[in-house]
Amino acid sequence: MRKPPIVFLMGPTAAGKTQTAIDLAERVSCELISVDSVQVYRGMNIGTAKPSFPHHLINIRDPLETYSVAEFAEDAKNICFDIVERGKTPVLVGGSMLYFHILLEGFSNIPSADPAIRRDIEAEGIKKGWPKLHAQLAILDPNLASKIHPNHSHRISRGLEVYYSTGKQLSEWHRESRASNYIDKNFEVHKFAIVPNDRSVLHDRIERRFSNMMDEGFLEEVNSLFTRSDLNESMSSVKAVGYRHLWKYLSNQVSLEEACFASLCATRQVAKRQLTWLRSFENLNWIYTSESGNLHSSMTKNNNMGKMEKPIDLIHSSIAYYMG
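Structure (tokenized):
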């Protein structure tokens, strides 16, 4: 019996993933699921480029709340099965690569966060700098550390926290998880990466998008969070790229120019890490776009590009048999 299809549309920030997913939804019978760790928060719309087209897993948490990768995995899995029950195809779109990874690889019963240990680690990270703690992680869990940027505070903190609380490497917990039942055992998974053919094009898009966000009221959006007495810069929602930088401006730590520059630099670093993540996925169909967003070239199983102009044409052609 043929497994139902599921589509993953991945790519770096500002690559055009969301519009491609919307184009696909207008062409085939499917429902979209957001794979974005920040779009889950209500009131954080401009800075996350939140789409107006219906997506699952958008606006499901207040910024005061947390939303773990385990919660995402459970929610996404259940929604995927519900979509199939409705006779449609799940299409997951976004740039939170860890979320995609967990859906494919799963995870074992890793202990939940220990607030006391995490507070101590975060205090040490602020005092000594996260590269120092990354060096500690490289000694305790070298496999995990090799996959983490020296300034990625959340992942460094989680790796150290798990080791200190269990005496066991987080990478070992992950290895043990691979015997579980995952999405790829229940679905015919079609993975696509949408990437500009030139890195400079991606950087230009990032700059234009940030400029547009500021014009649309991004600073005012962050200010609406800043004026809430129950939020602070230690919270996951406020730590998001762009938000944390403008928060520093509003708290008089930096100038607006410095905040905007830091946000752009951080966004480029995120895009770089997303591309690194993409290269780790197996059987990934790469779709390269031109500056205009049209199809430039591809590395997919469908080599008959013909007169195709848009990424959506190639994606639809590749999965038409399964979605027919």
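The chain has a mean pLDDT of 89. The chain has two domains: 5-107+186-323, 115-176.
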